[in-house]
Specification:
The protein is an alpha+beta fold. It has a domain at about 70-150. It contains 3 helices and 4 strands. It has helices spanning about 10-15, 20-90, 100-105; strands at about 95-100, 110-120, 125-135, 145-150. Strands 1-2-3-4 form a 4-stranded antiparallel sheet.
Length: about 160
Amino acid sequence: MTPYRGRSCFDDDLANLSGDDRAARTTRRRSGLAAMVALVSISFATVIAAVILKAGVAEHGYMRRLERQSQADWLVEAGLDRAAAQLVRTPTYSGETWPIAASHLGGSQDAVVHIAINREASNSKRRTVHVTVVLDPKSVTPIETSKETTLAIGEF
């Protein structure tokens, strides 16, 4: 065997082959290398595509949660407005539970708005209004938000 001079052991085998055999073996080695490069490239592209897809799904879920939270916030405000309007009509109004069907919300989840009115002991014209909203109450991850304010009867 000759000492290593920057050649592979296959180069010695190629030296003993005829021209046609040498060309065929070289072509097979090159096509095998090209197939390996193509396989690694496709694998890399698949991993990149999977990461991008996973990020897109996570972003979609995040945006959906933001949309639901925003809707719950608006329902709390609607509950406060409803309580104020009911107190104008009926000063003895004590609250209610207001179920809202998904079809009225333009989505796929129901909502429940609970309004509780408490009369302040120190001032009979002041009412503390507490509104709690549960969006999609049957879900594993319902959105719940609440707000409390004090209203004076006769000021609206």
